[in-house]
TrEMBL record:
Gene3D superfamilies: NAD(P)-binding Rossmann-like Domain, UDP-galactose 4-epimerase, domain 1. Residues 4-244 form the NmrA-like domain. Keywords: NADP, Oxidoreductase. It comes from Naegleria gruberi. It comes from the Eukaryota. The keyword Transport does not apply. Pfam families: NmrA. The keyword NADP applies. This is Predicted protein. GO terms for molecular function: oxidoreductase activity. InterPro entries: NAD(P)-bd_dom_sf, NmrA-like, NmrA/Isoflavone_reductase-like, PCBER-like.
Length: 300
């Protein structure tokens, strides 16, 4: 059986390292990683596991990136960052991949369904929409991968939805709005399955480790931790939209409102995942919220 050569970009990051590990469990896959200068020490563990390290970075020229993409079948991007990485860097990589004859390109999305959001709803989603459009028009094979919000992020302080210290969930709109959430590890396993699945070429793949409403979430937290959880409605979804616009108009700091834009994507339901495809990959057993809470109940 011939092997598939997969290049991971962002392989030393939280998600990228898990994707690399999942690929290494596939006997017919040869794994390589694009490693920028200065990250060699961090990448040494990957090399010890059998990953081929290729020197390069997204701010390299298209010609240099083309060399890094030689003899690669699939590129899985797991980079994070601002416009110079998500847009400029990935589009240079896309051009290089096409010139090198790469068969499939998976951009770094790993999110709610940003394709259903409107331009202006979310700064980061706007960038991803532009990248996705360029990927689709490039002529190279692609897979768009969506997994909802990362479970670890959902319970963290960035989104400002679950207050673990004060045992409170705050939301806009309805407490019955559904949220899709997946752990980093499960997302990594699923994207590897999708990347190697010929049926997912030029497709959008959506997976969800768990799907809950805020009401259900509060109940599950109470069941696992024993803490009473308060549900607090802060206003309508339109109220949140106005707050975002007001904040954007008074600051040039994207981090002052980007968390609220993620809230809007979740609370409004506009980015809810459709056509969940977990069943296509029965060998992946995703972690439910209750299972995750059992292992992390000490955060409350």
């Amino acid at each position: 059986m011939s092997s598939t050569k997969v290049l991971v970009v962002g392989a030393t990051g939280r998600l990228g390292s898990l994707i690399t590990s999942a690929l290494l469990n596939k006997p017919t896959v040869q794994v390589s990683a694009l490693i920028r200068k200065g990250s060699e020490t961090k990448a040494e563990q990957l090399k010890e596991k059998g990953v081929q390290l290729i020197s390069g970075a997204l701010n390299d020229s298209v010609e240099d990136l083309q060399q890094a993409c030689q003899n690669v079948d699939v590129i899985i991007s797991a980079v994070i960052g601002s416009e110079d990485t998500i847009m400029d860097g990935q589009l240079r990589l896309l051009e290089a991949a096409k010139k090198a004859g790469v068969k499939r390109f998976i951009p770094s999305d790993y999110s709610a369904d940003y394709l259903r959001a409107s331009i202006g709803d979310h700064d980061h989603f706007d960038m991803r929409k532009q990248v996705a459009e360029q990927v689709k028009q490039s002529g190279i094979g692609y897979t768009i991968f969506l997994n909802g919000v990362f479970m670890e992020t959902f319970f963290g302080p960035f989104l400002n939805i679950i207050d673990t210290k004060n045992h409170k969930i705050t939301y806009y709109g309805s407490a019955d709005t559904l949220v899709d959430t997946t752990t980093y590890e499960d997302a990594a396993k699923y994207v590897v399955e999708a990347a190697l699945d010929p049926e997912q070429l030029n497709k959008i793949v959506s997976v969800s480790g768990d799907r809950v409403s805020y009401t259900q979430l509060a109940q599950q937290i109470e069941q696992v931790t024993g803490h009473k959880i308060t549900l607090e409605r802060k206003g309508s979804v339109e109220d949140l939209k106005k707050l975002i616009e007001t904040t954007k108009n008074t600051t040039h700091n994207v981090w002052a409102y980007i968390g609220m834009q993620y809230q809007y994507a979740l609370h409004s339901g506009i980015c809810e995942l459709k056509n969940i495809q977990n069943s296509k990959y029965p060998n992946v057993h995703p972690t439910s919220i209750k299972q995750w809470l059992e292992k992390n109940k000490n955060i409350f």
